[in-house]
Amino acid sequence: MNPSYSHVADHLSDLASFGARAPVIGILAIATFGVADAVAARVVISASRTAAVALILAGVAGLVIAAARIHCSEGAAGCPRSVVDDSTWTDVLHGQAVVVNALAFFVAMMACAAGRVGAGRAAWWRPTVVVLAVLGLGFLSQAIGEGAVGAWQRGWLLTNSVLLLLVTARTPAGTQEGRG
Asked: What pLDDT does 80 receive?
């Protein structure tokens, strides 16, 4: 759909940008991650209010990322960051929402690991959550630079998806194990 777009070199947001050929697909894909964060909050709230609030914040930020489209006037392929960075208020809002999403998601995972989410489960669970959350931030930090930013972003989203599955699968819905 977007000729010459590179899943390795180009940002994911470029697929939802002004200038992309089918931005609705990119917008919906990005928004799905925000919705997933908010839904996960419902699952973990009985075990950790902190994690739930942070996941709601991450979810809202994810929806803002999807809605605050960046501008790539020449299309999604090779959209230069020099054109995007601070070009318009939506470009700025988009970038800030990415940071809020990443930090809120990280706080949520740390609250899950430190709190009662997954209480009574296998010993490997908590350290795995911490390692994956740190790994996810590492992927995102690499996506800020040049080079394989698309690959790093995909690594970040994959790590976050695995974490959401791990955390929600480890939290029995409706339990009142404690609040963290």
From this structure: 66
* 14 touches 84 (CB < 8 A): no
At 18, is the secondary structure helix, strand, or coil? strand
* Among the listed residues 40, 49, 173, 44, the one whose alpha carbon sits nearest the alpha carbon of residue 117: 44
Non-local CB neighbours of 123 within 8 Å, separated by 6+ positions: none
Q: Are 51 and 108 in contact (CB under 8 A)?
A: yes
Terminal alpha carbon distance of the chain = 45
pLDDT tier for residue 176 given thresholds of 50, 70 and 90: very low
H helices present in the chain, as ranges: 23-44, 49-67, 81-84, 89-114, 125-143, 149-169
pLDDT of residue 45 exceeding 50: yes
Handedness of CA 6, 8, 13, 15 (dihedral sign): positive
Q: Which residues pair with 18 in a beta bridge?
A: 20, 71
CA 84 to mean position of chain CA atoms: 20
Rounded to an integer, what distance in angstroms lies between the CA atom of residue 144 and that of residue 137?
11
Q: How far does CA 126 lie from the centroid of its chain?
A: 20
pTM of the model: 0.81
Amino acid at 12: L
